[in-house]
Amino acid sequence: MIIGSRIHFLRQTVSTMDECRSLARTGSIEGTVVLANFQCAGRGRFQRIWLSPSGENIQASILVRPKITELPYLNMAAALAASNAATEITGLHSAIKWPNDVELAGKKLCGILIESEISGAGVDFAIIGIGLNVNLEPERHKEIKNSASSLKQFCGRYVSRSQTFHVLLKHLNHYYERIKAGESLTSEWASKLNMLGCDIQISFPGTNKPSINCRADSLNEDGSLSVRVDDGSMFTATAGEVTLRS
């Protein structure tokens, strides 16, 4: 088993991503995991703060050393692993919101962040960051009460974080080994996306780019999204915030 070959548990840290990066730069082995009971400044895409009260959820970062051609599949592997773990624990279907959120009943259950360091034509290392809501009670937090979900909500009981963590690592290791074997994850990932064929709006937080009203047409091998803009033109999105249009 590659993922979870070494696990560092921290009671508290600023960011598991930063801790994992420090370990990577000092030669830690592939598959090393940093898991924290609480992180003071967890972050998601676009430098957004990830709300995660102490002792309720999983916030973990995983060190991998992929080939540069394998980088696009890391996000897919993490999303598929989290989705399958959620289904295994709750018995419910979970969906993936492009590009990197996992949802239950249309609300965010898990966020994923991939960061990498590249030298020349090679990858020094990559870090897979996963924030999974386990026992979070969204209704207690006005910022997320209408947008977030948790495993506890759908199980109707307290959910073991330890069990969830090991189920998550099992699935992530499965997909990472498939990547290392040269397999594509794109088709399986696409089958779980919840907006292909739908009318959507793509916004680009942190930039001056205007939002695009379009239809999600198809998914490309590298995970980018081909969309048909309302004016009839085609556009390939590699990042952005997607919302469904009614």
From TrEMBL:
**What's in the GO CC field?**
cytoplasm
- Organism field: marine metagenome
Q: What InterPro entries does this protein map onto?
A: aa-tRNA-synth_II/BPL/LPL (IPR045864), Biotin_CoA_COase_ligase (IPR004408), BPL_LPL_catalytic (IPR004143)
Keyword vocabulary terms for this entry: Ligase
Short name of one Pfam family: BPL_LplA_LipB
Name under which the protein is recorded: BPL/LPL catalytic domain-containing protein
Q: Does the keyword GTP-binding apply?
A: no
Q: Where is the BPL/LPL catalytic domain?
A: 4-180
According to the UniProt entry, its GO molecular function terms are:
biotin--[biotin carboxyl-carrier protein] ligase activity
